[in-house]
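Chapter summary example.
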Amino acid sequence: MKKVIMLSIFLSASFAVYNVGQTVSTSDQNVVLEGCSTSSDYYGQEFKLADWNGDLNGGEYHVIWLEMSASW
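The structure predicted for these 72 residues follows.
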């Protein structure tokens, strides 16, 4: 049982792409997303994180806070 728990912890950590404080790569910033929160201004609209990156959007810089959670 201890081996199963250790393996689960190892596998969970190995799928993490980003950690706290890291910068999202340019290729990930250009992935097209769709707003799915009904309380969002972007509900049902497509957007990219690059839309808020001044280096990629023509000089209009923004700071964004990404918070992700799951309730399973």
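To summarize the output: Strands lie at 33-34, 46-47.
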